[in-house]
């Protein structure tokens, strides 16, 4: 929520100058008139300008960016946040910009810190909102690079499973990463996939359709 | 470090003025305890402790950078 006070010869004029200061449009704002204009004697004596207070609710992008900027500052990181394009539906995306030596701290193991920051930003943005807005947070192009890495790892595991005719367990990974692998390998007809173990050690197991030897217990 | 824990807790609750965080040195570990208004406990823990987990992850990220060991508890 941003608030600004402004004066003008008429209420309309005061509102307009407040909106200019806020960089908002009339429909986004709520206006409270603090002082109606008074003409005064001969337009001079006792004349008073109109004074208004104009508020605009913060956009989800602003809420998200403000939260992330403060969070990164409290983490002792010298970073800034760039608001990206609106995504399909009601999603917004943000990108953390920082020194490359700080990227491992921002991203964390398998993106866990990035995921934690993204999750809390989602919570903060949707605190008092009726429609849920999904917030995506990225840093150093991690999400795209991770996606490509996952597909490569999936290909390798599938290749090994088919060649050895034995199930191949992949490294443990978070649920959305496992989903990427399951979905990707779904297209193949020579392997099927399942998951084994409990988080945070749950992993994808790639099972070849043609198996050799006694089945695993 | 304490400011980070306080900032996270205050950002998530409905009564930010009732958030308090205590700091305690336990051996080589720094222990933080978050107290919030009774109706806000769920807001800092979250479903399946997901919010608490995220708070711990972020605090640990900073701790790692400062080569410290940190735990975060929530009063309930």
Q: Please outline the major beta sheet of chain B.
A: 3 strands, mixed
**Looking at this structure, what is the CATH superfamily of the largest domain in chain A?**
K homology (KH) domain
- Helix segment tally of chain A: 6
Mind telling me which CATH architecture of the largest domain in chain A this is? 2-Layer Sandwich
Based on Cα principal axes, name the global outline of chain A: elongated
Order of helices and strands of chain B: HEEHHE
Low-confidence stretches of chain A: none
Roughly what is the average pLDDT of chain A, rounded to an integer?
A: 88
Instruction: Evaluate the radius of gyration of chain A.
Output: 27 Å
| Overall pLDDT confidence of chain B | 93
Helix share bin of chain A? 25-40%
Classify the secondary structure makeup of chain B into a structural class.
alpha+beta
Regions with little confidence, pLDDT below 50 for 5+ residues of chain B: none
DSSP helix fraction of chain B: 40-55%
Quick one: which chains have the greatest interface? Answer: A-B, 18 and 19 residues
Helix count of chain B equals: 3
Structural class by SSE content of chain A: alpha+beta
Q: What topology emerges from the helices and strands here?
A:
The complex is a heterodimer of chains A (217) and B (76).
Chain A: E1 2-8, H1 11-22, E2 29-35, E3 50-56, H2 60-74, E4 79-87, E5 91-98, H3 103-107, H4 112-125, E6 134-139, H5 142-164, E7 168-172, H6 175-185, E8 191-196, E9 203-208
Parallel strand pairs in A: 5-6
Antiparallel strand pairs in A: 1-3, 2-3, 4-5, 7-9, 8-9
Helix pairs in contact in A: 2-4, 5-6
Chain B: H1 2-12, E1 20-26, E2 29-35, H2 41-45, H3 50-65, E3 69-74
Parallel strand pairs in B: 2-3
Antiparallel strand pairs in B: 1-2
């Amino acid at each position: 929520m941003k608030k600004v006070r402004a004066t003008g010869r008429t209420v309309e004029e005061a509102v307009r100058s407040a909106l200019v200061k806020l960089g908002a449009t009339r429909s986004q704002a709520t206006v409270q008139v603090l002082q109606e204009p008074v003409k005064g004697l001969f337009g001079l004596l006792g004349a008073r300008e109109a004074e208004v207070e104009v508020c605009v609710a913060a956009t989800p992008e602003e809420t998200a960016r403000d939260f992330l900027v403060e969070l990164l500052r409290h983490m002792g990181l010298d970073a800034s946040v760039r608001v990206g394009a609106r995504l399909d539906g009601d999603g917004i995306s943000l990108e953390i910009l920082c020194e490359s030596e700080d990227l491992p701290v921002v991203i964390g193991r398998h993106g866990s810190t990035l995921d934690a920051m993204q999750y809390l930003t989602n919570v903060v943005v949707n605190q008092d909102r009726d429609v849920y807005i999904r917030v995506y947070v990225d840093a150093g192009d991690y999400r795209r690079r991770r996606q490509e890495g996952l597909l490569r790892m999936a290909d390798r595991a599938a290749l090994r499973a088919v060649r050895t005719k034995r199930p191949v367990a992949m490294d443990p990974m978070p649920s959305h990463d496992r989903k990427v692998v399951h979905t990707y390998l779904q297209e193949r007809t020579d392997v099927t996939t399942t998951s084994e173990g409990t988080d945070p050690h749950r992993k994808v197991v790639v099972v070849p359709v043609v198996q050799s030897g006694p089945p695993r217990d | 470090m304490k400011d980070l824990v306080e900032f996270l807790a205050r950002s998530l609750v409905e009564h930010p003025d009732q958030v308090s965080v205590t700091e305690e040195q336990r051996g080589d570990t720094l222990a933080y305890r978050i107290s919030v208004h009774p109706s806000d406990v769920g807001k800092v823990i979250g479903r399946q402790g997901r919010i608490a987990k995220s708070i711990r992850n972020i605090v640990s990220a900073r701790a790692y950078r400062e080569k410290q060991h940190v735990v975060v508890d929530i009063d309930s």
